[in-house]
Amino acid sequence: MRNDRHSVSTHFARTMIAAAKRHHLDHDTLLQDAGLTEQLINTPGLRITPEQLSRLTQGIWRQADDEFLCMGSRPSRHGVFALMAKQVVRCRTLRPVLYNMSRFYNLVGDAFRLEFRVEENTASFSLTLIEPDKDPDFTLREFMLLLLHRFPSWLIGQKIPLRYVTLDFPAPAHREEHRLMYPCEVLYRQPTNSFVFDADLLNAPVVQTSHTLRAYLRSLPLDWFKRQAYYSVYTRRVMDYLESSDDLAAACMEVVSAELHMTSRTLRRKLTDEGTSFQELKDGVRRDTAIHLLSQSSLPISQISRRLGFSEPAAFTRAFKQWTGVSPSLYRQA
């Protein structure tokens, strides 16, 4: 079916549009170009695709000429990240990458301070906003921490395994999104925003080049918004199976447990211990795939229903309304 499609909370689109309105940008054009509407992003429970969020981000970058999305004490002109990236791609290992990233941003802007530290067996990369009240919904902090982890990971050709992430604000209503954003435990109400990892990885070689960087920059910020979810062991294995399945209708507990070489009873117990269930995981995959198909294709709802393994469109409509609060037809209209 697919292995990288997922949906994103409309929270991020709402906060971006709110910042755009505060700075008198043409928010109607921003929404239209992203394939979004005010009704969609303000309807509780609805979700959007990474592609829609990426187009919205690009629109704000262009309109405001600000890569900080109008949420910093000072703007960062569109192109600053690319300038930094062209400098650090020349580094040999991860250690100088992080050092030069922090030095670059601390020199060219004063919206936040970055600090790279190594202490015994751990390394940390932290971000502190100069004027946090300019980021009332915490979106800039979440966005920058995501960027600061995923770009160096791309440079060394592997996801940097994190011990934990700290955030300087309380756990928000959308905290479940942090499972998609940060591949580790997240600690709230901390002194700063940071990620911490094993210092041994600082010697990992940079495998990207100026040539591969050009293609990477053209795809941004979509690559930052794609799923890199943190799940426990058996949850992740079930998700991997479901996301690669071409026949969700046949993907039942017995089939998946056999693929994982265990009994269905054992798998059910493992998932319960990890705080989830097979049906919950399957519904999540169905929901995200449905959102993509409804927003990015003209497939009839009856055909989408069959692809997702529902016996009839009415069953799909009931399930989709339970997941999002609206029917598939209303979602597509929005």
TrEMBL record:
<feature type="domain" description="HTH araC/xylS-type">
    <location>
        <begin position="236"/>
        <end position="334"/>
    </location>
</feature>
<dbReference type="Pfam" id="PF12833">
    <property type="entry name" value="HTH_18"/>
</dbReference>
<protein>
    <submittedName>
        <fullName>AraC-type DNA-binding protein</fullName>
    </submittedName>
</protein>
<dbReference type="InterPro" id="IPR009057">
    <property type="entry name" value="Homeodomain-like_sf"/>
</dbReference>
<dbReference type="InterPro" id="IPR018060">
    <property type="entry name" value="HTH_AraC"/>
</dbReference>
<dbReference type="GO" id="GO:0003677">
    <property type="term" value="F:DNA binding"/>
</dbReference>
<dbReference type="Pfam" id="PF12625">
    <property type="entry name" value="Arabinose_bd"/>
</dbReference>
<dbReference type="InterPro" id="IPR020449">
    <property type="entry name" value="Tscrpt_reg_AraC-type_HTH"/>
</dbReference>
<keyword id="KW-0804">Transcription</keyword>
<keyword id="KW-0805">Transcription regulation</keyword>
<keyword id="KW-0238">DNA-binding</keyword>
<dbReference type="InterPro" id="IPR032687">
    <property type="entry name" value="AraC-type_N"/>
</dbReference>
